[in-house]
Amino acid sequence: DPEVSAGNQAAKDASHGLRVANSEDFEAIEFCLAAGATLRREPQHNVARHWIIVEGSVELKIGGQSSTHLTNQSFYVPSGNAHQLTSRNELPVRLIEVLVIHGSVI
Description:
Elements: E1 3-5, E2 15-22, E3 26-33, E4 38-41, E5 47-55, E6 57-62, E7 65-70, E8 74-77, E9 83-87, E10 93-101
């Protein structure tokens, strides 16, 4: 499970995910990230991540860089990179994470 922190909320309530598809070389998970919550991902050398913002906005921090992503935007995190997403909303953020394992192409 990801490490999650959420201001005054309990960490376990900050994020929850629902696996929507998976196979040997990819997995897709729909997430709801609580208002103000932070989701941290540790580096995995065999897993690249594609994120799609369904509703809301997040701040992405990766490799010392920070960027903001809004509804209907997506971004890519190459394998081997730790990163974190922070909700910038008063309401939960809905997003989809697609993990591509061992460099497979979707």
